[in-house]
Amino acid sequence: MAKPSLEDFKERLELIQPKLFEALKEKKRFFSFRTNLHKTTPNEVISLLEREGYSPKKVDGFENAFILPIEERKKITKSSAYTSELIYIQNLSSIFAAEALDIQKEDWVLDLAAAPGGKSLIFSEKAQKVSAVEPNKERFFRMKRNFKQKGAKNIQTYNKDGRFVYKSCPMWFDKVFLDAPCSSEVHIELDKGLTWWSLRRIHKFAKLQKELIISAFESLKSGGEMIYATCTFAPEENEAVIDFLLQKYPNATLL
Ligand SMILES: C[S@@+](CC[C@H](N)C(=O)[O-])C[C@H]1O[C@@H](n2cnc3c(N)ncnc32)[C@H](O)[C@@H]1O
User: Fold this and answer.
1) What digits encode the pLDDT tens for the residues 165-174?
2) CB–CB of 92/61 below 8 Å?
3) How far is the CA of 64 from the centre of ligand 1 (A)?
4) pLDDT of residue 9
5) Given the CA of residue 143, which atom of ligand 1 is nearest to it?
6) What stretches of 40-117 show up as alpha helix (H) in DSSP?
7) DSSP letters for 159-187
8) For the domain bounded by 6-26+100-248, which CATH number is listed?
9) How far apart (Å, rounded) are the C-alpha atoms in residues 125 and 107?
10) Which of 134, 142, 230 to mutate to test the pocket of ligand 1 (most atoms within 8 A of CB)?
């Protein structure tokens, strides 16, 4: 397969959504964070930050998502809220996706591709317990440390390949979140060329995602709910993966 040019990439993105390529070039104006509910409450954290000179804004429709200007991103890591693990810096898209999983207090949640663990932390604040799976050793141990520092005691961690989890845990979980590894366009630095992105890569990820989504679905209890998420716009890694599951399992329904 020939190496793709920036023009190929642009053309493809514009087919998916006409404004996408331009949007990728936009500079970030804000960063977002959540309160660590294992240690504190949003009100306490906001008061603390305000005393230290910050003016966080709450994101509409969310009890626990706040934004600050991007210029304060570095400085906030010195704040007492950050160093005491009271806040967690996380993209809004990640917060929204994790909050979309309808978790009940008694639920057991499987996070099938979990590191660095930001979404597992959200699940752990609502569920009875969470099982977080991550095959990459380095990322796995960093995730474990993250959970410990945040005081999340109801997360069990597994250094395993998510594709095979269903074999040892068939129909175990009330809820499953699959935040699949993907070709993610946001890693592309357009001025440096397409070092990361290629159609070949997209197809490689799609194959892995199909194996992972089967494992996620087979691990889910009858009547359970799961979310499949990626951080790419590629239809091969999104709609096509969901179609694949729906074709294979007549008992799977799209919500
Ligand atoms: C998008 S990241 C997950 C981000 C995480 N959910 C969060 O919000 O903090 C995808 C993760 O999947 C992991 N991964 C790669 N192959 C996997 C596999 N076969 N099974 C499970 N996880 C895998 C990667 O190492 C990476 O940590």
Assistant:
1) 999 999 999 9
2) no
3) 24
4) 87
5) 9
6) 42-51, 80-83, 92-99
7) -S-GGGHHHHSTT-EEEEEEE-----GGG
8) 3.40.50.150
9) 11
10) 134
